[in-house]
């Protein structure tokens, strides 16, 4: 895809400040909100079942993350997804640690029927969503992303969602097309919530898109933008505490020229 | 008010380390605790209904924030407010996103009867507490603070609380007197929790005050101190990640001379 | 103990990346995860009663922190502790603010029967676990650590746990032996969660240990490593916002030579 077309989504987010309704995990709530503010979006963590139905239609997109799922949250998530879907708002699923934990796996599988616009996970999680045997170790993937590429394509065809498998190399597919992205830094895995906040960033980008074709481009743009920001942040700070700070700064300031010069993408000819 | 009188509250907080009991939202819990520690106060996030009645009387003030309200928290908040009030401890209400969301709006209106010492909100929230039609967009105010000044004064007279409307310009009123404060930086809105933590800071300051007249001065002092710290932090760091770090540093170190030189306040002649 | 032997646990954590299952409080969840990532461990905050029984046996250690205990969490904690114990995995108890608050005190006393590998608390908390009258003020200890040394030794003998009392001076005892550690900085108390994250760090270190004798050495190593990292971080940053960032950076990078040169320990001849 043209780098300029991808960056046009960054500009849209900065100009429109999409309101992103997040039901996410307890570990990353603060960081996710700060990432959304840094990119120019507006975070809203409305969590109670009593409120999500009324709030989801007011937002531009909904971001669902299963990282610290419990019973009350499954109910709030179901209510929020139904309300967002009913109002025609796109929603993003981050199936954290799905696979070895049956409670959240069932919740995730159940949610697949509600037509997420995007599913973003690591290789283990994407394979597990297809019923595969890739067992993760908590939140870490034990599989490389390319091992999940087939699963991602099947999952995309089956759910009609754009599917992103992120890791050292990131893959984004709508079932037919596949793009790989090779930006980022290993230090992004040494700060908690970078992946979870990326899902919320995808929701922000998708919240400025109007159809499935744009969801695809918006997802590629969100991942490219975030990983390139990470790559610049590593130049500022090589240790995890200061890297997290630099990452937020870069997310707030990365410009089009630096983005275009740094982007590493490749079209994959599907097998 | 005399800048030196306002700064005397900063000194009190640093010397007495008031214990501030916070029932706040999931997004800002950590940042709020770090802000309180930075100014020299002692945060205590005791949240269970089973514990708040015993704990609230031990604290110097209670800070209530409705940002991620759910049913169990409404019960814990009610119990904590009753216990603090019963023990003669001041409490502060931050009615986050009240207005478009009926569940929290009802909770906030119900709490108004329990005589908060201070109510701090943005313009939309303060207007909504009076039953007005200013609809916010999640946590963001869509109204300018001056549009809420009349509502703030009426609310203060009706509840006997000091009411603070914060935004680009901040207003503090006890119903009769109004002071405007014009310090701060737009970057304070690009870090999640700056406003929520400000409410907890108000509680810390009010926790060193002994009567309604002092609540008024303590609220002005807390807002002036925080916004001036923000103004200095922007000189240290112009992007949101590093700004948040610099803000905590400035809250911990801002001295009287810098405070007095930077303070921009004005008495408003009420209409 | 030999400094090189203590540092061998740091190396183990970096090489093995122990998976640490944490049920901790809402204030420190993010910071705890980032501390664990900084030292090279893998955090996993699986919190629902429906999931903890299945997850605890997959982890290398379990870290329990009572800071924002509520009824659902008491059940999840009980389930997780039983599952970890049943699978032979060590667990660490951080009895935050036990003493003045009966609800969490009962929970903590009940958990003592389930054989924690390590108990880490401040002086007030350790004295309170023995039924003593040291009343803390929220999360702050009002007693010096040496006042709790006798209580720590009795508690260690009674529970068979390694007991650590942390403060300006830290004491670690298994009931017979006592070591004091005198590294660290007062600034560590101006950032929320440093103590709570230290308990999780102890769990990470203990997760690489194989018997009670190693639990003892691993606990000393975890506290020594963390406090020395804090001492170096203060040299980088003298104010709390930037200190927190520097602390994570130092946890990720402190080398053996700096560790050995800085360590201040002393064997205490028990009375």
UniProtKB/TrEMBL annotation, chains A, B, C:
Family of this protein: Belongs to the Thz kinase family.
Function noted in UniProt: Catalyzes the phosphorylation of the hydroxyl group of 4-methyl-5-beta-hydroxyethylthiazole (THZ).
Identification of the protein by name: Hydroxyethylthiazole kinase
Residues holding substrate: 45, 193
Keywords, comma-separated and alphabetical: ATP-binding, Kinase, Magnesium, Metal-binding, Nucleotide-binding, Thiamine biosynthesis, Transferase
Catalytic activity field: 5-(2-hydroxyethyl)-4-methylthiazole + ATP = 4-methyl-5-(2-phosphooxyethyl)-thiazole + ADP + H(+)
EC number: 2.7.1.50
Pathway: Cofactor biosynthesis; thiamine diphosphate biosynthesis; 4-methyl-5-(2-phosphoethyl)-thiazole from 5-(2-hydroxyethyl)-4-methylthiazole: step 1/1
Domain of life: Bacteria
Cofactor(s) this protein cannot do without: Mg(2+)
The organism's taxonomic lineage, starting at the top: Bacteria, Pseudomonadati, Pseudomonadota, Betaproteobacteria, Burkholderiales
Residues binding ATP, per UniProt: 120, 166
Gene: thiM
GO molecular function: ATP binding; hydroxyethylthiazole kinase activity; magnesium ion binding
Family annotation (Gene3D superfamilies): 3.40.1190.20
